[in-house]
Specification:
Distance between the termini: 41 Å
Order of helices and strands: EEEEEEHEEEEEEHEH
Largest sheet: 7 strands, antiparallel
Helix content: 10-25%
Number of strands: 13
Radius of gyration: 18 Å
Strand order of the largest sheet: 4-3-7-1-2-6-5
Length: 205
């Protein structure tokens, strides 16, 4: 589990491509201070497992399912990536509960800069729209953000200078893909309501 508070910007050091997977090696600093084999680190919001590491890089296996459902397959050597270690019992929950399980891909639609922040519009897949609400939480490339407005096929977020400077969202341009993870609480609530409604229907038969 993660909080959506990016610890550092790493960069892709190497990509070893196979027929149905890749080995992804990331250059980093902060997230390696207590790295262990088997530990979880989120890369652009996607939870990956450390399979080996040294004092400057770490490597993860990325299977086909992850390549199909996230933007990780489009990474190239040198690309920056958002990194966050999994939470501990003592971690402050500064963002929101993020699982590192990407629900789908969006894309940057437009950026509207202002003096002190920037409004970014992001496309929203139709099957995720029901989980996104104004003032609700969403993870975009692993960054915990508050939704400003929701349209039929997109939503907007406001990015402060800190977010623009410390995450990949500061450099994303129109058309660039982003990983989206909706609020897990909304998904659980929907499932609970569906199950309750189904049992109620069965009881009246």
């Amino acid at each position: 589990m993660f909080t959506g508070i990016v610890e550092e910007l790493g960069s892709v050091a190497a990509l070893d491509r196979h027929a149905d997977a890749i080995q992804l090696t990331i250059a980093a600093g902060e997230v390696l201070t207590d790295a262990q084999t088997g530990a979880s680190i989120a890369v652009n919001g996607c939870c990956l497992t450390v399979v080996r590491h040294d004092d400057r890089t770490w490597t993860a296996d990325v299977m086909q399912e992850t390549l199909d459902k996230t933007s990780l397959g489009a990474l190239q050597p040198g690309d920056p990536v958002n990194l966050e270690r999994s939470v501990t019992a003592a971690t402050r929950l500064g963002g929101h509960i993020v699982q590192g399980h990407v629900d789908g891909l969006g894309a940057i639609v437009r950026r509207t800069p202002s003096e002190h922040w920037e409004v970014v519009e992001i496309s929203l897949p139709a099957d995720l729209a029901r989980y996104v609400v104004p003032k609700g939480s969403i993870a975009v490339d692993g960054v915990s953000l508050t939704v400003v407005e929701v349209n039929d096929d997109s939503f907007t977020v406001s990015l402060i200078p800190e977010t623009l400077a410390r995450t990949t969202l500061g450099a994303k341009q129109a058309g660039d893909p982003v990983n989206l993870e909706t609020d897990i609480l909304a998904r659980h609530l929907e499932r609970l309501m569906q199950t309750t409604a189904r049992k109620g229907t069965e009881a009246t038969r």
